[in-house]
Specification:
2 copies of one chain form a homodimer.
Chain A (H helix, E strand, L loop, with lengths): L2 E7 L7 H14 L4 E7 L3 H5 L3 E3 L5 H6 L22 H13 L2 E8 L1 H16 L5 E6 L15 H22 L6 E6 L6 H5 L12 E4 L7 H15 L2 E6 L27 H13 L3 E5 L2 H5 L6 H19 L5 E9 L4 E8 L24 H7 L11 E2 L2 E2 L22
Parallel strand pairs in A: 1-2, 1-4, 4-5, 6-8, 6-9, 7-8
Antiparallel strand pairs in A: 2-3, 10-11, 12-13
């Protein structure tokens, strides 16, 4: 008995989330005997509530394949948390009505922690309301903080971007430090965990030393200790590269990026931990600085995605469909590491309740004793995730990314306003 | 009669300045009958004054070839302007003493406007002081503002980086705008001219529309007009990408990035035009923003250098040596455009006095009438410069850049302190 499949993207997008979409859609197309049509919700769960569905069957094979080299979320993503059943029963009833109206038997939700929670809630409420649904979460997050899985699709590419950018900018500063900039500060993402900041450590190698100071959200910021370290690096190397996580806080738990309201730094400013650190360096050490904030550039940089990351993102999409077909409700494909060197991995399965609302922190043993760098154990963990290149095709000098047709499925239900939910 | 060649790098480095170095050194090695040894000054003209020279003959053929894929300035660069002869005759006498001590007959100085001026001064003073020297400038600047040459080595790669980053980040925001960020602001370099900002326009194509607003230093910033344009883009597309040059000023000539002290925006802040623009958008339009500052990342991003730019950078290095050998004193190789489509170019020659202390502005006809975008003429000019890819080799997930031995040439003169000059 054929059922239709519904796929949706959720949370902050990555440079390879569309590879997961391609994995889902290509696998679904190959299951012609079991899966009828393959829909995607526009803008994640919001699109399900609004019955705003896209018919992926109308997209060409070439367009779906091109998703593998296209960043962003091809169907639109969202930041939207479902309320608990007790507060918003109508919301869940609406979801089931949309599933029923379009004969959805399989729901694949592609996201991070919040999305795993959403997928779990949807699967529980479907059971409660008696709607037959197999619900599978497909992992994705640059934050690399999902439980159970060894790593998260999307992270390896950010790690490659950050390590490469830090290496390149350091060589630039190294050239100029005699008579110009002596400290370069790069701000990277990671509000709660230092996984992305840690990736900067991959720019250093045993045979290619760089004077790098990393500021992790896990380590409370101490101005004197930090400045002493930077001054030391300048003395030895002539310059210093500082990588600061957006989530760095002082001993009182205040974000550095909100230092405008804090006595410690004394200047009102517009957010961003890099400018705070940069200004502090020039004020206290009297050396010239430059600073950069990578922001969305780091998570959308498909042009330098990790091939390993890309393959894993595609695989979790495909295996997600396998799990759905097998009726493995409330599960998520996870990446299991078999060995570090050579790096070998496989896709396993986790129960969603072991994943939802958990957060995987970076182990303290991954941060060096002084708190400013990564350990060999961290390097062994991170490096494989950045391996390999898979550049997009270029057209006239710029990547040739695809935009899908995104043709809407005909609506069958009354209009539903999310604002009323 | 063999003479030695001295090469030096000057000013802000680029992702391909080392390709020019490779061109110089490989060409010099091929002129064994005319050129004795090939030296490089450490940190530009500073290294000449200090007699701090590097013996490039001790670098392997493979290491010199690897310069073509390595960003930064392999021999060190500098920000240092020679004083006029009338104020600092001793400085010029020192330069000649160093040239004489190391039998330098050819001096190749690789840089931008200031460096062309330095090269011209050195050549004039050599003549005045009776030292036989052929002095050639090798062009380089991401600012693309050198006179005579159609474009400047280093710029095409920044243009490719900016266009690609804007495209990628825009796809990211497009995915999220329904329930999250609606405006993304990217700050790019260009204190005086909007060439780099203009390159963002290449992210748009006739068949791939993006809601892009570019703020050029050439166009005085008008807050109301700008906000109306952004609001319009959000209304039509759901989001907007803003690319702001670091050099944007208001009608009174004040830099936006110094708006901290200005009444117009009213908030003290730490520099950077992106955070000023971003805060303005959220304050006035009540939408969520994200902002990024590319800073050194854009000019050091060898991983996404333009192949055309790379080939041009290498060629001006090689031709620079040809000119030196031919005794074409006080000249500079320039890039001449033969045709736009297909793009064809050749290397020509310019007298240094036509280049030094000139600045090529972006023509007004390259900026659209409304001041927020580029024209077709601009696109025809820019696009060829970004054509082709030439990625570096990777090792363990990160580019495999080279660091030279940089072994010093034995000193023959008394120590000279630049501070005393």
């Amino acid at each position: 008995m054929k059922k239709n499949l519904l796929y949706a993207q959720s949370g902050g997008v990555t440079s390879v989330i569309n590879a997961s979409a391609a994995g889902v859609i290509e696998a679904a197309r190959s299951y012609g005997a079991r899966i009828g049509r393959t829909f995607a919700a526009r803008n994640g769960i919001i699109g399900v509530l609004r019955e705003d569905l896209i018919d992926t069957d109308l997209e060409s094979k070439a367009a779906i394949a091109a998703l593998k080299h296209t960043p962003g979320g091809a169907f639109g993503s969202c930041r939207f948390k479902l309320k608990p059943f007790s507060e918003a029963r109508a919301q869940y009833e609406r979801l089931m009505a949309v599933f029923a109206a379009h004969d959805i038997g399989y729901f694949l939700y592609n996201g991070g922690n919040d999305s795993a929670d959403t997928a779990l809630k949807v699967s529980e409420m479907a059971a409660k309301l008696g709607y037959p649904l197999t619900c599978v979460a497909v992992p994705k997050t640059i934050d690399n903080d999902l439980a159970v899985t060894d790593n998260c699709p999307g992270f390896g590419s950010v790690a490659k971007y950050v390590a490469t950018s830090v290496l390149e900018a350091s060589l630039d500063v190294e050239s100029m430090c005699e008579s110009s900039t002596k400290v370069f500060v790069l701000e990277v993402m990671g509000r709660h965990a230092g996984w992305i900041a840690a990736a900067a450590g991959l720019a250093q190698r045993p045979d290619f030393d760089l004077p790098l100071v990393i500021l992790f959200p896990e380590i409370p910021f101490e101005q004197d200790k930090f400045l002493a370290r930077v001054a030391h690096q300048i003395k030895i190397y002539g310059y210093c590269t500082v990588v600061v996580s957006e989530g760095v806080r002082d001993a009182n738990g205040h974000f550095l990026s909100e230092a405008g309201g804090s006595d410690a730094f004394g200047h009102a400013q517009l957010g961003g931990s890099a400018p705070v650190i940069a200004q502090m360096i020039t004020r206290e050490l009297k050396v010239k600085h430059h600073w950069a904030v990578a922001d969305y550039l780091q998570r959308s940089a498909r042009h330098i995605s990790s091939k390993t990351d890309l393959e894993q993102a595609y695989s979790v999409g495909r295996v997600g469909v396998d799990l759905a077909i097998e009726g493995r409700n409330a599960t998520m494909p996870v990446i299991e590491r078999i060995s570090d060197t050579p790096y070998r991995w496989q896709i396993g399965v986790a129960e969603l309740k072991r994943v939802a609302n958990k957060e995987k922190k970076m182990p303290r043993k991954f941060i060096s004793k002084d708190g400013f760098g990564i350990t060999d154990a961290c390097r062994r963990y991170l490096q494989p995730l950045t391996l390999g290149e898979s550049p997009p095709p270029y057209r006239d000098g710029v990547p040739d990314y695809v935009r899908l047709l995104r043709l809407s499925v005909e609506r069958k239900l009354p209009i539903y306003r999310i604002e009323d939910a």
